[in-house]
Amino acid sequence: MWEPWIDGFTHAMRLRPDASDSLLDQADEETRTTMIFMLALQDINTCASKFTEKEIDQFDREAPDLIPNCVATILTQSRPELYGSEPAPHSEIPFKAGPRPGRNDPCSCGSGRKYKQCCGRN
Questions:
Q1: Chain CA centroid to CA 37, Å
Q2: Would residue 8 be called left, alpha or beta, if left means φ above 0 and alpha means ψ between -120 and 50 degrees?
Q3: How far apart are CA 7 and CA 93, in angstroms?
Q4: Residue 63 Cα distances to 13, 49, 99, 105, angstroms
Q5: 3-class DSSP state for residue 52?
Q6: In whole angstroms, what is the distance from residue 115 CA to residue 118 CA?
Q7: Integer Cα distance of 106 and 28 in angstroms
Q8: pTM exceeds 0.70
């Protein structure tokens, strides 16, 4: 199932070759290796690989687990402003909505109609 994803990824790289080349030129060793690995997966996908069948079988088994880490590595290099940002604090108390109006209560939008004939219709 990784093949369509990697095909889309390399297609996106071809859409912006200047950005891809720039990233490769400025990348650290880990990111450069990661991008080369992703391109090697595309070669496997298009039957243009020089790997042995045994190596291709191993890549085929491991690719679904490796691709998310590869994407994270590339994202860290290409978008450093996103890397290291703290996620929003997660409240331990779940959100609880206020009480809903009854069907025959006046609508809260101020129309003067009953809720069931106004905003409660949908």
A1: 19
A2: alpha
A3: 42
A4: 19, 15, 49, 57
A5: coil
A6: 5
A7: 63
A8: no
